[in-house]
What we know:
Blueprint: H1 2-109, H2 114-213
Helix pairs in contact: 1-2
Keywords: Membrane, Transmembrane, Transmembrane helix
Amino acid sequence: MLLQLLLLLLLLLLLLLLLLLLLLLLLLLLLLLLLLLLLLLLLLLLLLLLLLLLLLLLLLLLLLLLLLLLLLLLLLLLLLLLLLLLLLLLLLLLLLLPLLLLLLLLLLLLLLLHLLLLLLLLLLLLLLLLLLLLLLLLLLLLLLLLLLLLLLLLLLLLLLLLLLLLLLLLLLLLLLLLLLLLLLLLLLLLLLLLLLLLLLLLLLLFLLLLLLLL
Length: 214
């Protein structure tokens, strides 16, 4: 009788152990499912980040193109202004050369109007100097615009490089997270296998005890 009671107690303990192992298996399965869901979410986040980065790169390229077009239009306008000023200078020179010759003749012929003619000559020379100064200023503006264009291009290239570096860092972080999750999955699978083996052993013990009772 005592042996039978002990065997019954052992059977009850085995049953409890089996139930506990089953609960542990269920919990591990739930953890595995949660990890799989996390992996899927991380993959979706990776895809979204890649799409956002591609969109940012496209927007930056469009901005670059727009800036280049604007700068080219400004350069064309300045070139047109320079050409117009050169044409005006040439016309003034063509008009002033005969006038200068006439003034020289009048100076030779009319000594009384000497001072007036000198003043006119000085005014003409001043006009020529002003036109030359305007041409120089326009050339300086062209050079400044070219320098600004180069600086803008350099800044945009730096921004693109920074964005690419950020993208690479994000991708590396996500890959590390994926690797960690995969390692956790492997560990959980190993635990599941061990628990299954324990279940099998307990079942065998349970069967042996039943046979002994019988």
